[in-house]
Design a protein that fits this description.
CATH superfamily of the largest domain in chain A: GntR ligand-binding domain-like
Helix content of chain A: 55-70%
CATH architecture of the largest domain in chain A: Up-down Bundle
Number of helices of chain A: 12
Largest sheet of chain A: 3 strands, antiparallel
CATH topology of the largest domain in chain A: Four Helix Bundle (Hemerythrin (Met), subunit A)
Oligomer: homodimer
Chain lengths: 231, 231
DNA sequence: TACCTGAATATGTAATACTTAATGCAGCTG
DNA sequence: CAGCTGCATTAAGTATTACATATTCAGGTA
């Protein structure tokens, strides 16, 4: 008998609660009926009755969807579907201190990958005005006297690149990941002495001005080389 | 009086429920006390009493955190913090049909950016075995007779690249975004006649074998050029 | 010692009642 | 008739209570 018991001990992980099931039901409901943002969804009581569960459980499921920005609710009007922010879910989880070391490292790698690949978006969408801003940041950096100020410029420069890429989702992605980047940069700075890549910010700006899309990826690679070498 | 009314009409959006507040309280609690995965968190009743709300509200908040994989609960042991999957939140939201056109487009751009920038991870981590698999895919593709089969190979090839990058988070990211990519590819294929970039999969494999990290980004850019031109 | 049993405990679910905000309708007033 | 007032209605938010279920632990028995 103890043997049988052991066999069953492998299973019980797959336990799903009523709230989980209701949540999935609602997802399917939304997808199958191709409900669009602005459209109403059934009342809490209706859902509860239809699925044969307590209103309590339904509220838990709805609460989750609301957190993700998939639905909104008004006191009498009921609940309506909304266009969710795709990056909302990421934002809710990412906090440097609760992520373990290896995940932080992976996210940082992700950043390096993004910046090297960013070129084509930049060249298609950059504006004169944005290039001027980059110039200003580079200038500020060269005049900087403190380490703090230099790091600020570093962050501003790379943030500006994401903005220039003209992709709202990507920009938001970077914004969410920023705290993680800072965390890693601080960590790395303790290892070696802030070694700088052979390509500077000024060099990168020059390439952008020159419309040299071919040169960009490898220039950025060289700029980021100190980080890449940590991989 | 109607003027005053208009002034106030701008405000009422900022409504937060008890569940929202409890959720935030719990987040702070976890962060401030730097609770680590495996550590227990207070019982539902304790939280409810401490914050002066009903257990119901607490459960809604906990339910949300559980969905994101931040906590797990066992019948008696109480609830413990777990290492969340950073990409879980994304997975919960992303479904091609509920994302609007512009967001899908932005995610697809994100993919292009990633693949161009992927080089340095690939060259540092690729194994002989993985390269052989790429060879096999290319061979399969060349023998393919149907369009369906060719598309399968296309997907397999690019998926394999992400796998080779040896970054679990990135790989998962790609996995989640896949349905969106397929959606866009299908859309594009209606526009022009599946124009192929001047660099083939076989060319890319050759570069990987040759350990030519400098050549990779621009080769991939050329490979993806048909997509890039849609930007 | 090994096994069974039952109490204690914390989460999961249900049911009910009340509060609050928004909406609409009906009726009143000018 | 127009416009305002106020009441009824509706649906979400919150609270309370009770019970089900599973897990842990301690204590008793062979």
């Amino acid at each position: 008998m103890s043997i049988e018991k052991d066999l069953f001990k492998l299973k019980p992980i797959a336990y799903t609660t009523m709230a989980d099931q209701v949540e999935n039901h609602l997802r399917e409901y939304i997808i199958k009926r191709s409900i669009k943002p602005g459209d109403p969804i059934p009342k809490e009581t209706e859902i509860a009755q239809a699925l044969g569960v307590s209103r309590n459980v339904v509220r838990e499921a709805l609460s989750r969807l609301r957190m993700l920005g998939m639905i909104e609710s008004r006191k009498k009007r009921g609940m309506i579907l909304t266009q969710p922010d795709v990056m909302k879910g990421l934002e809710l989880i990412i906090h440097p201190t609760i992520l373990d070391e290896s995940v932080r490292k992976q996210l940082f790698e992700l950043r390096l990958v993004l910046e090297v690949g960013l070129g084509d978006l930049l060249f298609r969408r950059k504006t004169e005005e944005q290039l001027k801003k980059l110039d200003a940041i580079v200038e500020r950096e060269q005049k900087a006297t403190t380490q703090i100020e230099r790091i600020r410029c570093e962050v501003d420069f790379h943030s500006m690149l994401y903005e220039m890429a003209g992709n709202e989702t990507l920009h938001r992605f970077q914004d969410i990941l920023m705290p993680v980047f800072e965390y890693v940069v601080e960590y790395e700075s303790k290892l070696d002495h802030t070694s700088v890549g052979s390509v500077t910010h000024a060099d990168l700006v020059k390439i952008l001005y020159a419309n040299n899309a071919e040169a960009y990826p490898n220039a950025m690679r060289k700029h980021l080389m100190p980080h890449l070498d940590h991989l």
